[in-house]
Design brief:
Length: 117
């Protein structure tokens, strides 16, 4: 049997949920709380906690874990609600002309991630 035959379908990871109580943008930055560092969690949630020991965007977590973005949004929302993760501002910055633009470092990390796929 191949390794992929053991893979859990995304809907099973979230209990069939497609939305979270927490609305997260793909560029929302996540970081692990002290409570999160001590929590005993399932495989996927523990992976998110470990990755977010250093601040990371929702999109980066999805890419590193190779789990669909919407699944990560649901799981991260659960972790935020439980107090295991916190979210700061999005990774966009306000420019002088009043238009929001993505941070250049974020764009470079996204490009690096896409090139590694």
């Amino acid at each position: 049997m191949s390794e992929s035959s053991f893979r859990v379908p995304p809907y099973a990871i979230t209990g069939g949920r497609t939305r979270s109580d927490v609305d997260l943008a793909i560029e929302s930055l996540l970081s692990t709380t002290e409570q999160g560092k001590e929590a005993k969690l399932n495989h996927e949630k523990a992976g998110i906690i470990k990755l977010c020991a250093e601040m990371m965007s929702v999109a980066e977590v999805s890419a590193h874990m190779k789990i669909p973005l919407q699944v990560i949004k649901v799981l991260a929302g659960d972790l935020i609600t439980a107090g295991h993760l916190k979210t700061g501002a999005t990774a966009t910055s306000q420019k002088g002309d009043g238009k929001e633009r993505p941070d250049l470092q974020l764009l470079n990390r996204v490009l690096d991630g896409l090139q590694s796929l």
